[in-house]
Design a protein that fits this description.
disordered N terminus, mainly alpha, 161 residues, homodimer
C-alpha cells in the first residue's frame, strides 16, 4: 500500500496534502496512511487532533507502528465527532458497565453451582458408605475450580478525575 | 468553581492562557475548566488535540456539557500520551477481551447449572409420585431463568477499519 501511495503521490496528492492544499512530496509522512480515495479518514483526524499534531505524533513513532497509530486515531476522532461530549470515553464507560453486569451474573451462576454441588454432597444417595468417599472427594475438588479469571490490569484508572 | 476561576482570572491567568501566554479575559472559554493550579490538564489536551481544537470543541457545546467534555478530553489525551500507538483505543480493546472472557465463563457456568438441574430432575428421588410433579415444575421454570442480559448497544463498531 505504501508503494502505491508513493507512486500515486507525484500525479495525485494524498488525502492529507489535498485537504491541506500542499505539495505531496516523496517523503510525505501522511501519504502511506491517508490515500486519496479515503478523504474522510484524514478529514476526521484533522478536525479532532489537527494536522500538525497528527504529523508530530507520526514522526515520533517508528514506521512499523504508524499504521496502528493512524487506525486508533481515526477511530478516536470518529468517536469524538459522533459524541462531542464523551468521545470514545463513552464507549469505555459502557464497556465497564457491561463488565460489572457480567461479573454479577457470573458470581450468581457460580454461587448456584456451588450450592447445587453442596446439596448433591449432602443428599441421602451420596451418604451410602459404598460410593460416598470417592464422589465426595471428586465434588469437593471441583467445588473450588470456578474462580473468576478476569484481567483487571490497566483498568484501575477512573475515567473521571 | 467557575466563579472562583473567573475572579482569579484578572490577577492570575488560567492554566491555558498561562501556557499560551495570552491575556485571560472575563470571557475566557478555558478558565472555568483549566484552573491555574492544575497546569498538567491543559498541557495534555493542548499536546494531543491542540488549543484551537479544544477551544472550538468547547465553543460548539452548551455550557452544561463542557465540564464533561473537558474530563473526557483530558482522559483521552493522557491515554494517548501514555500509549502513543493505541491511546484509549487500547483500553477499549482490552475491555472487549475481558467481556469475551466473562461471556465464555458465564456460558460455562450457566450450562453447568442447567446440566445439574436436569440431573436433579431425572434423579430417583424426584421420580416418586408424591413430590415429583411440584418439584419438576419448579425446576423447569427456573431452568429458563438464566438468560444473559448483556447490552451490546453501540458495541458493533470494529476498532480497526
Amino acid at each position: 500500500m505504501k508503494d502505491s501511495s508513493r507512486k500515486q503521490g507525484a500525479a495525485c496528492p494524498c488525502a492529507a496534502c489535498k485537504l491541506l492544499r500542499r505539495r505531496c512530496g516523496q517523503d510525505c509522512v501522511f501519504a502511506p496512511y491517508f490515500p486519496a480515495d479515503e478523504p474522510h479518514k484524514f478529514a476526521s483526524v484533522h478536525r479532532v487532533f489537527g494536522a500538525s499534531n497528527v504529523n508530530k505524533m507520526l514522526q515520533d513513532l517508528p514506521e512499523h507502528q504508524r499504521a496502528d497509530a493512524v487506525s486508533s486515531m481515526v477511530y478516536e476522532a470518529n468517536a469524538r465527532i459522533r459524541d462531542p461530549v464523551y468521545g470514545c470515553v463513552g464507549a469505555i464507560s459502557s464497556l465497564q458497565q457491561q463488565i460489572d453486569s457480567l461479573q454479577t451474573q457470573l458470581a450468581f451462576a457460580q454461587a448456584e453451582v456451588v450450592h447445587m454441588r453442596m446439596r448433591q454432597l449432602s443428599s441421602p444417595e451420596n451418604a451410602s458408605p459404598s460410593s460416598g468417599n470417592t464422589q465426595s472427594r471428586r465434588a469437593t475438588r471441583s467445588l473450588f475450580n470456578m474462580d473468576m479469571v478476569v484481567d483487571q490490569t490497566d483498568m484501575d484508572d477512573s475515567i473521571w478525575p
